[in-house]
Amino acid sequence: MKIMVAIKRVVDYAVKIRIKSDKSGVETKNVKMSMNPFCEIALEEALRIKESGFASEVVAVSMGPTQCVDTLRTSLAMGADRAIHVDAPSGSVLPLSVAKILKALVEVEKPGLLFLGKQAIDDDCNQTGQMVAGLLNWPQGTFASKVVLDKEKKVATVDREVDGGLETLCLDLPAVLTADLRLNQPRYATLPNIMKAKSKPIKKMTPEELKVEMRSDIEVIQVTEPPKREAGVIVSSVDELVDKLKNEARVI
Amino acid sequence: MFSASYRRKLILNLTILNNRSSSLSQGFTHHSAPVPVNQFLASFTRGLQNPSLIHLRNISEIQHRNYGSEASIVQRNPKFSTINNDDITYFEKILGAKKVIQDNEELETANTDWMNKYKGSSKLMLQPDNTEELSQILKYCNSRCLAVVPQGGNTGLVGGSVPVFDEVIVNTRRMNKIISFDEVSGVLVCEAGCILENLISFLDQKGFIMPLDLGAKGSCQIGGNVSTNAGGLRLVRYGSLHGTVLGLEAVLANGDVIDMLGTLRKDNTGYDLKHLFIGSEGSLGIITKVSILTPPKLSAVNIAFLACEDYASCQKLLFQAKRRLGEILSAFEFLDAQAMNLVLHHLDSVRNPLPSSIYSFYVLIETTGSNESSDKEKLEAFLLHAMETGLVSDGAIAQDSSQASSFWHIREGIPEALQKAGAVYKYDLSIPVEKMYDLVEDMRLRLGDDRANVVGYGHLGDGNLHLNVSAPKYDDDILAKIEPFVYEWTSRHRGSISAEHGLGLMKAEKIYYSKSSETVQLMASIKRLLDPNGVLNPYKVIPPSLLS
Questions:
Q1: Which domain covers residue B155, as residue numbers?
Q2: Is A188 in Cβ contact with B403 (below 8 Å)?
Q3: What are the boundaries of the signal sequence (chain B) (predicted)?
Q4: What is the pLDDT of residues B31-50, one digit of tens each?
Q5: Cα-trace Rg, chain A
Q6: Same domain as B185, residue B151
Q7: Interface membership of B374 toward A (CB under 8 Å)
Q8: Which side of chain B, N or C, has fewer Cβ within a 10 Å radius?
Q9: What is the number of domains present in chain B?
Q10: Three-class secondary structure assignment of B208-277
Q11: Chain B interface includes A188 (CB < 8 A)
């Protein structure tokens, strides 16, 4: 069985986010970019499945500008066998387009399992996994915190973190899974693996080759920072506090 | 854009410290995590059994200190006056009442160092607003023969920033204005009481960084940093404060204000006296203003965590890193297997980046440059070469900031892990790099395997070894085997018994291990010249016997 993992290149989670002066989006120039942490977890799980003998190959795929190759190189250094980069301008890669590209790639590669992060930390959409499952008409196990495969029965048992507890699903393969934070702790890219990754292939493709039209159904009108928290005041008496709560904050 | 809840979860679950610097602990200048007073004292039963510690409650004539280090006995100098009501009235007149602090709670904090290791019994703290006020204070104290302890953020490790007896505490915290910043030259001029972290964030907005960074940055003040010539993790890249401080203003014991506040990189006119005040721990004058050269902030930071089979490989790796990484090398730290074990064993949040095998040494290399991809390529090429030639046995390169901070966390978690492991004897030594680890091995032989765990780590790039001996509890026999052996060994190899912590009260008497008696005599002459009454930070840096 082959596993395909979708990888997204995002602004590093430790970077302080700055809004572009024209409010058209987040500043990404001269900003450290890294692999989306949830994608890292998805990749780690795919690698573990392969290492335990349930899969023969892990293919990492990413969509976006040329620099996505760096992120794919990281996934190869972690242990993916090969990678596919679908070259597309960064503004056009919205969830539905990504889902369509993933569907097209699945039709080419025919994996038994498509793994994604539950969401990306830049736009927090949490849509792509669900959309691609819908497009493929595959069962989906989203927010997976535990994945157990049964090779014989071609079934995946998935624990999902839902409000109020865990839900366990049994999915027929092929299926779409999205990784939650507690699924695993991703490994580091070690030097021997970084060395090996240098000779692993990264195939470049275009949306046209995959017959996907990169159409944006969403128009971003404005991106703004959340309002700054105002400094507190120290009140001198209970009466003053009550007065402020009544007349300024209007909460009582 | 980034979901706040996600960030919280990531920190909770992976226990990765979001901001490396906030955890940047203790590893660099501070060698132990704070411990509650009672716990600390309990572990120092030797100290408590000693009747001379009674001075903790009353002003005693004898100061006895032996917290895990060799005992040093200091007598209060009888020629110093004690504070009276007239003094208070005078200070209130020149400063105003709110800057004259006699409140017990505030004095308690100012009298105690942050490790709860040293404690004075001062009854008065003054907080001047500016150089003029500070000058008036010193002039008066000098004329009255009142001893003074200059204090900044009080984050020192050698008892230099707290009173020994009843010295007047002169705290610079109110002198915290940034005077000027030149965006072309990168020269920052500010008052001594500016907190390092505030300067770092001020410069961050301008696209610059401070040339020094250390664990105590949230509390320590630039005046104290300069007075103690603080080191820290950027030293390998930007050099010591003797290089980056371009000028300063200091007040002498008699109240004279010495204006050396130049902002020039080159100035060969006569003796460069500012250097006397850098690292003299407030014993020659109180620094009131500093002008400092700040480097531009570079965005591309890469970190690798490496394993080496032996110490010789670590050395060769350093040699090659300096050549092949050149200008982008910004940190080169090492730890031995014992240190790694302690961290893995005592800190839950740490995981071994190289779990496949156990290695004798681990090295952390950081590069800082202006071009993310070319810097990374350079680092990778260097490391792959080191791997092929066998210098490095295994290694990992951080792929994002959370991995980077988890690598740093290993190095920076050592002091905390040591603290959790029990009693610890700490030494901060400068030793020529090729001999550095021999001391750790000699110490291990000397102590035997079962009694104490000898741990070596530190700033390999600067030849700075942190030698720590960890034992289940404090033990006189262990101490007797460590001291004076450790000082003698360091002295024999022309090392320094204080690489970056200073001498303070802890090591004033040990100065001869690193300086010839002629040198110390000359220091004493300079001290007598600048401070004839010896009122500035007495009992510290130079053996008191030389000055009486």
A1: 37-171
A2: yes
A3: none
A4: 333 333 333 333 333 333 33
A5: 22
A6: no
A7: no
A8: C
A9: 5
A10: ECCCCCCCCCCCCEHHHHHHCCCCCCCHHHHCCHHHHEEEEEEECCCCCEEEECCCCCCCCCCCCCHHHH
A11: yes
Query: What is the spatial distance between Cα B471 and Cα B477, in angstroms, rounded to a whole number?
Result: 11
pLDDT score at B442: 94
B448: tokens are 């035997």
Query: Do the Cβ atoms of A188 and B7 come within 8 Å?
Result: no
Burial class (CB in 10 A: 0-12, 13-18, 19+), B484: middle
Task: Provide the domain limits for residue A18.
Answer: 2-226
- H helices within B168-221, ranges in order? 196-206
User: Does B271 touch chain A if contact means CB atoms closer than 8 Å?
Assistant: no
Pair A170, A50: CB distance under 8 Å:
no
CA atoms within 13 A on the CB side of B318: 19
Provide the CATH number for the domain around residue B326: 3.30.70.2190
Helix (H, G, I), strand (E, B) or coil at B302: strand
Choose among B1, B306, B399: nearest Cβ to A35. B399
- Residue in chain A closest to B402 (alpha carbons) equals A14
In a domain, B9, yes or no: no
Pairing status of strand B72-75 against strand B300-308? unpaired
Q: Is A109 on the interface with B (CB under 8 A)?
A: no
Distance from the Cα of A151 to chain B's closest Cα (Å) equals 28
Residue that is written with structure tokens 């390169």 in the block:
B397
Question: Strand pairing of A82-87 and A57-64?
Answer: parallel
User: Has residue A245 been placed in a domain?
Assistant: no
Whether A15 has its CB under 8 Å from any CB of chain B: the answer is yes
- pLDDT (tens digit, 9 = 90+) per residue, A49-65? 999 999 999 999 999 99
Confidence of residue B450 (pLDDT cuts 50, 70, 90): low
Residues in chain B: 548
